[in-house]
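Technical annex, item 7. During the second reporting period the consortium partners agreed on a shared format for inverse folding records so that results from different sites could be compared directly. Each record opens with the tokenized structure and is followed by the designed sequence. A conforming record, contributed by the partner at site C, is shown below for reference.
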């Protein structure tokens, strides 16, 4: 993972939601967002807001902690939300179909360290860390694929 290229302060949960929605509208099938952070950092909160922005109609967006993966049909194609915290080993990833989803869907992956060498090289990584108070967060975005540079321009104004 490369060093953070963009650090965004989110002083409230609503600010985090707004940022997640703004990012979601810049995503397309084949994009993967790797969400990193401690338990309770806000990974699922961020993913829910982003997924909600991509759906035609509001729907319940449960945490995939126990199912490992939840999928949705978005306006631009399939959306996958994976929580790999409980993943036993890499062989389980084949059963989930994540590798194919990385090519065909917009994917949000919590606990991406569990992916090991299967993490997409073109993914956008977001580290979510505590901010100034209990509800504030700082999001540190990093990437290696050059396309993210242009796609993320102006996100800090969202």
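Designed sequence (site C submission):
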């Amino acid at each position: 993972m490369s060093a953070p290229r963009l650090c965004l302060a989110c002083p409230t949960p609503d600010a985090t939601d707004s940022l997640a929605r703004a990012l979601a509208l810049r995503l397309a099938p084949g994009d993967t967002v790797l969400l990193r952070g401690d338990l309770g950092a806000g990974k699922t909160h961020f993913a829910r807001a982003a997924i909600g922005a991509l759906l035609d109609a509001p729907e319940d967006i449960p945490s995939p902690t126990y199912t490992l993966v939840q999928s949705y049909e978005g306006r631009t194609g399939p959306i996958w939300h994976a929580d790999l915290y409980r993943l036993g080993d890499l062989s389980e990833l084949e059963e989930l179909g994540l590798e194919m989803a990385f090519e065909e869907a917009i994917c949000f992956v919590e606990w991406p360290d569990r992916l090991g060498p299967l993490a997409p090289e073109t993914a956008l990584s977001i580290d979510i860390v505590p901010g100034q108070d209990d509800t504030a967060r700082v999001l540190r975005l990093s990437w290696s694929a050059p396309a993210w540079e242009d796609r993320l321009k102006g996100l800090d104004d969202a």
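Strands lie at 6-10, 32-36, 69-74, 77-83, 106-110, 124-130, 137-142. The domain at 6-142 is CATH 3.40.50.300 (Rossmann fold). All partners now use this format for quarterly exchanges.
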